[in-house]
Amino acid sequence: xxxxxxxGGGLVQAGGSLRLSCAASRSINSRDVMGWYxxxxxxxxxxxxxxxxxxxxxxxxxVKGRFTISRDxxxxxxxxxxxxxxxxxTAVYYCNIRFLGVNFWGQGTQVTVSS
Length: 115
Hints:
Layout: E1 4-7, E2 10-13, E3 18-24, E4 33-39, E5 46-52, E6 57-59, E7 67-72, E8 77-82, E9 91-99, E10 102-105, E11 109-114
Parallel strand pairs: 2-11
Antiparallel strand pairs: 1-3, 3-8, 4-5, 4-9, 5-6, 7-8, 9-10, 9-11
């Protein structure tokens, strides 16, 4: 079974930046999709951003222009650079890998933005 280890969460002031990292223990598939989701109490888990091995990206409208997702295929690692953070970005962020309908999840890392 693949393991996903997240790092980089924490507490920042509004307008600040954080960079999340998620390293997988192995590759799922050369054409898998890696991404980040987030969830707050009382809300459904939502996609923040994802990226294919070829570099095709998708972003939630709420983070476009502020967040950047990237990946290092050789290291089985996905990153999320978060700039201009807002209080509404406060959530637990989960790393995700999926391929052919199979999902693997990280343990979640808390991001708190103070206003």
